Amino acid sequence: RTMRTNHPSIVLLAGIASTSAWAPASGHYNSRRSAAAGCGVASSASASSTISRGNALHGSRGGSASATSLRAASSSAATTTMPPLSSGLHDEHHLPLARDAMRFIDDSPDPFHAVRSASDALEDVGFVEWNEDDDDQLAPGGKYYFTRNRSTLVAFAIGSNYAPGSGFKIIGSHTDSPNLKVKPYSKRTTAKGGGSSGAIQLAVECYGGGLWHTWFDRDLGVSGRVFVRDDESGRIRQELVKIDRAVLRIPNLAIHLQTATEREAFKINKEDHMAPIIATAVKDSLGAKGNEGNNKGYDDDEWTKNQEPLLVQLIASELRVDEKHIVDFELNLFDVQRGTLGGVRSEFVHSARLDNLASCFLSLRGLIDHVENGGVEKDSDISMIAMFDHEEVGSSSATGAGSPIIGEAVRRIGHALQADGPMLHDRAVRRSLVLSVDQAHAVHPNYASKHEKGHGPKMNGGMVIKRNANQRYATTGISGLIVRELARRAGLPPVQEFVVRNDCGCGSTIGPIISASTGMRAIDMGCPQLSMHSIRETMGVKDLTHGLALFRAFFSDFSEVDGSIEE
Q1: Could you give phi then psi for residue 206, rounded to 5 degrees?
Q2: Which of 8, 175, 299, 425 is in Cβ range 3.0-4.6 Å of 80 for a Cys bridge?
Q3: Are strands 528-530 and 340-342 parallel, antiparallel or unpaired?
Q4: C-alpha distances in angstroms, 51 versus 56, 112, 113, 319, 469?
Q5: Which of 515, 432, 416 has its CA nearest to residue 474?
Q6: What is the DSSP string of 403-425?
Q7: What pTM was estimated for this model as a whole?
Q8: Helix and strand element counts for the chain (H, E)
Q9: Do residues 102 and 33 make contact, with C-beta atoms less than 8 angstroms apart?
Q10: How far apart are CA 102 and CA 19, in angstroms?
Q11: Crossing angle (nearest 10°) for helices 354-372 and 541-563
Q12: φ, ψ at 408 (rounded to 5°)
């Protein structure tokens, strides 16, 4: 159903409620959910939810209903006399990729959904899941992926001309972002009737270093992984849930109730002030079950007794299972407002989780394009992407970049391809390069003094190389030169450079961790953005195009560029 507004370039597409999939062959991320984000319009959240693997992310590789609607909307807008909001951009070819990125991010509110979105996109173009117990499965020309904990993914394509000792071209990113996670015991309100406030709240934990004040007064949904016991077999299966509507909210304190000192600076106690409201305790007059629902498990165990009944009821309803069959979950909160184009020329992407799902999307798209453009048939190396969990909390986990995942993958792939001797393995490591891709800090116009004067990246100005003499970033003279040469050959804008001020601390990411554990050369880089770790972040639409072009060049031209530089 198409609804017009007073501006001809703003067309809301309503009544499309389901799940989404990116069809790489057509170059679009096909959405059968609300298509408003595809038009670059901020919309209220759909009431739809993504619930099980059977229903999620299985779009056709051709055009979808929403793609047809988007074309119709564009055609309709073109017949009017008033120019669209994006008419001043002069580079509107950047916008389809930006819309695809927004849909991918909207469909990936947590690492579990991000990995499933990526897995389904890979399978659509012929990647198969690697059975790591079968050494005979791998072969030159093959395309494979594997996951860990369903929150970390590694995918790789073996060049048809592969020879033992060939190198690995790896793009690393991370699937996690700062957020609020539901605590193991989700029940926070224990007083009858909700206590003095009459409100029922959830117990949540801060994950990562978020700008937590941005989470106040936002419409919050719930997503994650749920463990469900089968009544007949007794086996426990995993389901993904995505409740894409405003079921939770953390309200601000009214200014009238704050002292003069409190008004000067917004200070919060993360334990006391960030518990979201899920409902009121008033229910009898409305005939609702309230928060004393029947979520008793098989043994009325301690875990069940300490869960907020309303939350369990909500999840059970979304998954269409009995409450008693839910035995555990890993859930986080997310902002249900979808990504949107912004600025009078539609130059910006405003979205949650740009750090670092934008990088995940670009690396995924880069690998798929490399495959679909015939790159594997010409290649003698192995092209790989790795999306890790837990970067925001240090990467020291079984699924983080600090784990043996990459090192083991390189050794096991070499073994399966008869290249597992010490000499061949060492040669492969020397011929490899890791692009550690994580969003970079663009110069903030209101806080320009926070940047080093000679190294201030700008949005829509191209990709950013991060350097730090104290090795907080993995970039070296050689790895930086390789990326600059790749950009030059691809006809891209000169790569921007970032270093921190001497009087400012420097962050870090997965580059040094992977380089130290594997011995591979690495570089830290990313797209410039503002508002990093806010619930809503901002980046330039052109930088998505720049990033994808650079990643395509990396997969196709790295060996030639690397060979042109004296060792």
Answers
A1: -75, 130
A2: 8
A3: unpaired
A4: 7, 12, 10, 6, 47
A5: 515
A6: SSHHHHHHHHHHHHTT--SHHHH
A7: 0.85
A8: 13, 25
A9: no
A10: 14
A11: 50
A12: -65, -40
The DSSP-derived string for 47-68 is S-EE--TTTSS---SS--HHHH
Instruction: Tally the residues of the chain.
Output: 567
Q: What is the pLDDT along the chain (567 residues), one digit of tens a residue?
A: 344 344 433 333 333 333 344 554 444 444 333 333 333 333 333 333 433 333 333 333 333 333 333 333 344 444 444 445 545 555 689 999 999 999 999 999 999 999 999 999 999 999 999 998 887 899 999 999 999 999 999 999 999 999 999 999 999 999 999 999 999 999 997 666 666 688 999 999 999 999 999 999 999 999 999 999 998 899 999 999 999 999 999 999 999 999 998 888 888 999 999 999 999 986 544 444 555 555 454 456 899 999 999 999 999 999 999 999 999 999 999 999 999 999 999 999 999 999 999 999 999 999 999 999 999 999 999 999 999 999 999 999 999 999 999 999 999 999 999 877 889 999 999 999 999 999 999 999 999 999 999 999 999 999 999 999 999 999 999 999 999 999 999 999 999 999 999 999 888 999 999 999 999 999 999 999 999 999 999 999 999 999 999 999 999 999 999 999 998
Strand 11-13 and strand 179-187: pairing?
unpaired
Closest CA to 70 of 81, 60, 78, 58: 78
Three-point CA angle 502, 506, 510, nearest 5°: 150
> 211, 351, 180: which is closest to 277 by C-alpha?
180
Helix (H) or strand (E) holding 247: strand 236-248
CA distance 411 to 518: 10
Residue type, position 18, single letter: S
Query: How far does the chain reach from its first CA to its final CA, in angstroms?
Result: 61
How far apart are the C-alpha atoms of 366 and 361, rounded to whole Å? 8
Residue 223: is it exposed, middle or buried by C-beta count within 10 angstroms (0-12/13-18/19+)?
A: buried
Structural contact between residues 476 and 517, judged by C-beta atoms closer than 8 angstroms: no
Distance, in Å, from the CA atom of 102 to the CA atom of 94, rounded to the nearest integer, reads 13
CA 61/CA 40 separation, integer angstroms? 23
Residue type, 428: A
Cα-based distances in Å from 323 to 82, 241, 315, 316, 320: 53, 14, 8, 5, 9
Q: What is the DSSP letter of 371?
A: H
